[in-house]
Amino acid sequence: MILEAIPKAAFSVLAGSNLLKRLASRYGMRRPGSFARRFIAGESVAEAIEAARQIEAQGLLVTLDLLGESVATSDDAAAATRAYLDAIAAIEQAGVGRNISLKLTQLGLDVDKATCIDNLRRIMNAATTGGFFVRIDMENSPYTDLTIEILEVVWNIGHRNVGTVIQSYLKRSARDIDHLNSMGVRVRLVKGAYREPADVAYQQKADVDAAYIELMRVLLRAGTYPAIATHDPKMIEATTTFAAEHQISKDKFEFQMLYGIRRDLQTSLAREGHPFRVYVPFGKEWFPYFMRRLGERPANVGFIVRSLIREK
Ligand SMILES: Cc1cc2nc3c(=O)[nH]c(=O)nc-3n(C[C@H](O)[C@H](O)[C@H](O)COP(=O)(O)OP(=O)(O)OC[C@H]3O[C@@H](n4cnc5c(N)ncnc54)[C@H](O)[C@@H]3O)c2cc1C
């Protein structure tokens, strides 16, 4: 398939295009069948809650993610923080799963560390009171150390309902997992979604996959309720096989996938009795997230073109 030949790098360049962003923002979510709705639950928290209800009705769990990243001013970071606090209140009221994911650059990490920590603390306070779990997503490698450091700040204040994400494409990840396991922090294991240089990250899919399996085994053995987040049937098979061989029961870890991707596998794994969580992204700032999903599977571009033709 010719689309598969488009390199991931092309999508990260296109993700920086303001023209494309404007066009996508105009057409991507405007109707119920518009193309971005395949991967994004909606622009409002009400739409995300509705999506969460439908997912939960199928026996799956959710984590809600208010999209946004790389904010450049403390005002924007404060606005994102308020939006998270509002989302927490709305989720509590709606009675859907109390689990959120967030990004530190959304809370002002590029503005300054203290602002970001302050904002995260406000969210953690509301989350802890409401009985939420908070997952700090992992962004690109300049943020890896900072993300772990800031997680430790809130952990050491006493918030134990917080976890983060480790990417198997990073060569440092075995060390990070050992460190987080020693603290008892819950890890979501992913392959990694950003374009990274060869000195820090494996470039070949085979190496990223081999590292994923190795790290999955370390996490399952450690027993800190890891999340195995992948759409790759080979990774899933390796996980269920390892768990069976080592008598690790299904309730000791969970699988996770992104909203709109491999829905067939999502429901079949839940039916087999695996705790299964869907990452439900929502909000107006969906463009960079959307472009990363295209970069992972360029064939999705064909899906967008078909939806646009249908909409005409
Ligand atoms: C719940 C969750 C949270 C995540 N959080 C983070 C994070 O915090 N930081 C981070 O860097 N990354 C995160 N990711 C993304 C992750 O790093 C990968 O980029 C993404 O999951 C694709 O890798 P894969 O494991 O599915 O395997 P791949 O080898 O990329 O794909 C395996 C198969 O899955 C299917 N597939 C994968 N992606 C798509 C797609 N976009 N559209 C359609 N089919 C697809 C295809 O059938 C493909 O052949 C997260 C992923 C999940 C599931």
Structure description:
Helix 4 packs parallel to helix 5 (113-130), helix 5 (113-130) crosses helix 6 and helix 7 runs parallel beside helix 8 (205-222). The protein has helices at 8-14, 18-27, 45-57, 74-94, 113-130, 144-157, 173-183, 205-222, 233-245, 263-271, 287-296, 299-311; strands at 61-66, 99-102, 133-136, 162-167, 186-190, 227-229, 254-258, 276-282. Helix content is 50%, strand content 13%. An eight-stranded parallel β-barrel has the order 1-2-3-4-5-6-7-8, surrounded by seven helices. The chain is an alpha/beta fold. It is globular, with a radius of gyration of 19 Å. Flavin-adenine dinucleotide is lined by residues 137-138, 165, 167, 190-194, 229-232, 256-258, 261-262, 279, 293, 296-297, 300.
Write the SSE topology.
Elements: H1 8-14, H2 18-27, H3 45-57, E1 61-66, H4 74-94, E2 99-102, H5 113-130, E3 133-136, H6 144-157, E4 162-167, H7 173-183, E5 186-190, H8 205-222, E6 227-229, H9 233-245, E7 254-258, H10 263-271, E8 276-282, H11 287-296, H12 299-311
The structure holds flavin-adenine dinucleotide.
Flavin-adenine dinucleotide binds next to strand 4, strand 7 and helix 11.
Task: Give the terminus-to-terminus CA distance.
Answer: 25 Å
Q: Which strand order do you get reading across the main beta sheet?
A: 1-2-3-4-5-6-7-8
Low-confidence stretches: none
Task: Indicate the multimeric state.
Answer: single chain
Total strands: the figure is: 8
The helicity comes to 40-55%
Structural class of the secondary structure composition?
A: alpha/beta
Order of H and E elements: HHHEHEHEHEHEHEHEHEHH
